[in-house]
Amino acid sequence: MRSACDTHLHFYDHRYPVAQGPVLRPADATPEEYRGVQVALGPERVVIVQPTTYGLDNT
Questions:
Q1: Would you say residue 19 lies in a domain?
Q2: pTM above 0.85, yes or no
């Protein structure tokens, strides 16, 4: 998929605090793990979206 763009993905890491009462608390999904997916599927660009698990804290 040359020039493809993955338009929506989230990263999760148990080391960071979650918002009070999050609906989703998935297992870790790290940039390093996604890199394997990216190599296999071939997108050249990605859009990372903050999951609601972390609330409105964008730090």
A1: yes
A2: no
